[in-house]
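Sequence in, structure out. Go.
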Amino acid sequence: MCSKEGNDTTTHAVRHEHEHDGHTHVHTHADGTVHSHSHAPASSPEEALALLTYMLNHNRHHAEELHDLAHCFDEVSGDLIHQAVDKLGESNDLIEEALSLINNAG
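Output:
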């Protein structure tokens, strides 16, 4: 993994597969962890809540990886990637707020 002096980063080799007709996506990380998900609609409110929670955690993980990747590039490009990560963080915060409202509505 690219890193600038003084930054502690983790190596992540990621393989992505996309099956467009079935809308299945598979992500395999260097540690062997496999994430697979599809774009089929949720069959129940409980499943929708579980999917939203999963997606929030998945998005946060990808934001961390993007942050690490920013250190592979020049300062200007890296700064743009960090700005994008900040915006992803803001989006994830909104999703987390929605989840909190959903969980406390019962």
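Check: The chain has two domains: 12-39, 42-104. Residues 5-13 have pLDDT under 50 and may be disordered.
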